[in-house]
Design goal:
It is a single chain. This protein has about 200 residues and is of the alpha+beta class. It folds into 2 domains: about 150 residues, Glutaredoxin (3-Layer(aba) Sandwich), CATH 3.40.30.10; about 30 residues, no CATH class. It is built from 5 helices and 11 strands, in the order E-E-E-H-H-E-H-E-H-E-E-E-E-H-E-E. The protein is globular.
Length: about 200
């Protein structure tokens, strides 16, 4: 699996469904200036996938507060995305999801992010945090049966914002308001408690 952290995120220009409407030319480059949480999921109309898509939707306002755009992607067609969006939650649908869902029907995007499970032709559960300049700052890839943590995605955005604002690094399990670390001229590390806001 390729490590994309520290590299320019592969751009794409594909069909996406946004608020139930099809957009023919949706690109990563159009989101420059925002943080982007790009996540891949295996297929529409499956079991674990709707739990993840709803979980991102339930915390969408928290992503928006951080100027972060959530973008979902699978190898399904845009028609499948529309049908799934029009299916009520109680019937396994994702009605109410408002963030963009990209259609990677030719699987080129999954290949460029190196999350394609070749033997099944679907994507692993990859998640990529892309900064405002289009650089991948965090990536995690789960196997098909393992749902991801939306709270961890938010925590990673907070850590990145904190680092950009204060130049301080965030130790394990760091949360906004917790102590961070900064190297001194003597090479020692001091701990600081600074609010991320």
């Amino acid at each position: 699996m390729a490590v994309l952290v520290g590299k320019k995120a592969p751009d794409f220009n594909l069909k996406a469904v946004i608020d139930g409407k099809i957009k023919n030319n949706f690109s990563l480059s159009s989101l420059k200036g925002q943080y982007v949480v790009l996540f891949f999921y295996p297929l529409d109309f499956t079991f674990v996938c709707p739990t993840e898509l709803h979980a991102f939707q339930e915390k969408l306002s928290q992503f928006e507060e951080r100027r972060a755009q959530v973008v979902g992607c699978s190898v399904d067609s845009h028609f499948s995305h529309v049908a799934w969006l029009n299916t009520p939650r109680i019937k396994g649908g994702i009605e109410g999801v408002r963030y963009p869902l990209v259609s990677d029907l030719n699987k080129q995007m999954a290949k460029s992010y190196d999350v394609l499970k070749e033997d099944e032709g679907i994507a692993y559960r990859g998640l990529f945090l892309i900064d405002r300049e289009g650089i991948v700052r965090h990536q995690v890839v789960n196997d098909l049966p393992l749902g991801r943590s939306v709270d961890e995605a938010l925590r990673m955005i907070d850590a990145l914002i904190f680092f950009e604002n204060y130049g301080e690094v965030c130790p394990a399990n760091w949360r906004p308001g917790a102590k961070s670390m900064k190297a001194t001229q003597e090479g020692l590390i001091e701990y600081f408690a600074v609010s991320a806001n």
